[in-house]
Amino acid sequence: MTEQNNAAGRVAIVGGGLAGSLLALSLARQGIGVDVYERRSDPRVDQSGGGRSINLGLSKRGIQALSEVGLLDEVMPLTVAMAGRVIHAPDGSTRFQPYGKDRGEVLHSIDRNELNRLLLDHAQRHPQVRLHFEHRLARIDKDARELEFEHGEQRVRVQPAWTVGADGAFSRARREMQRGERADYHQEYLEWGYKELSLAALPDGGSRIQLEALHVWPRVHCFFVSHPNRDGSHTLTLFLPHEGPDSFATTREPAQIRALFDKYFPDLVPLLPTLVDDWNRHPTGSLITTRTAPWSLDEWIVLVGDACHAVYPFYGQGMNSAFEDCSALMAALGRHPGDRRAAFADYERTRRPHTDTLAELSKANFVELKQKVQSFWFLARKRIDVALNRLLPRTWLPLYTMIAHTTMPYGDALQRARKQDKILVGAASAAAVAAVAALAFGAWATHLI
């Protein structure tokens, strides 16, 4: 049975996740009617979809986007401020590494599902927005400008004014948009996967480890990252190879699970009394990065978020970047009133080089988190960066500060960081030459005497 829904003059957003629901609000605030189609059931009713979320670190870019739709004051009470990283060494010792030069440079831990529910609540309250759950995109007829969804036993066809694909890394909207077109698509899986566990709060609601920090247990073979929750608990995410020795493939039985933790994370064992049950209850997730082009087709469909640039989670910028896409798309539409084709092209031209840079930064930070955060040279460089930032706050900005605590385009941030690296290398070389010259002069002077 097929139905025809009236979507004339309205925008269809495929995907009701974080980017889709935020963009719906952004458009609605401009007086534009929006229909959001989500393949899942309503997450505000069915809250059983956990286990694959990875808690999120809200930073400046995401904060800016939430401010633009007037929701920041409601979101911030749902977060826990993280002032820096606590690094847990194999011997059980810890070291705190601040994110920036002061308490203003922090990240904010938030539960992905809680944030999504808040965004959907506000979208539903807006008179310009209609939400349609359990609508799975089946196909796109590009000639007829028609979307077809599966909704139970029904087929629902809609003809919106234009369409946004916000349906994630495995986007059906992207595949349908690019079908039969000259398009590029690159997908890369990391050989590591992830599994989420929970570190319960103390009986009085206190935290078993420092609350206002991101905790990292870096090991070359695997590592844990912990995000704090408001109730004093922590969401632990284990990153581990899919295959090989000490991998998800070889960690299935209770004895194997305990052996893995005894070997790499002995300090966590006493804090996880239900470890085996939690391990078996939570699924193993995969990590993917994608790049694609084009991001739009004519003036009718455009992509945002993971649908056009999924990244690994190791720089904490996935959500922030997706939210920034929404801001960038709205800005492009504002620069080209009445010409969506030009707006879509402008959005991709100005945005895609920077999301490509983010993909490379996220991949590089994978090595940093599992290995470099304990390195003497890494710590020394970080201290130099922080010291120079305090001395020259407008001139010298560490790369992490530019990525997490400003809205500077990602590519511009990396370019500036590389220039700063050259200055440091040059200064170190000059210092070394001066030291050698001083030693040589001293030896010459001694010889004369």
Automatic annotation (TrEMBL):
Cofactor: FAD
Residue spans crossing the bilayer: none
GO biological process: kynurenine metabolic process
InterPro entries: FAD-bd, FAD/NAD-bd_sf
Enzyme Commission number(s): 1.14.13.9
Gene3D superfamilies: FAD/NAD(P)-binding domain
Listed GO MF terms: FAD binding; kynurenine 3-monooxygenase activity
Top-level taxon of the source organism: Bacteria
SUPFAM superfamilies found in the cross-reference section: FAD/NAD(P)-binding domain (SSF51905)
Keywords, sorted A to Z: FAD, Flavoprotein, Monooxygenase, NADP, Oxidoreductase
Name of protein: Kynurenine 3-monooxygenase
Species in which this protein is naturally found: Lysobacter enzymogenes
Lineage, uppermost ranks: Bacteria, Pseudomonadati, Pseudomonadota, Gammaproteobacteria, Lysobacterales
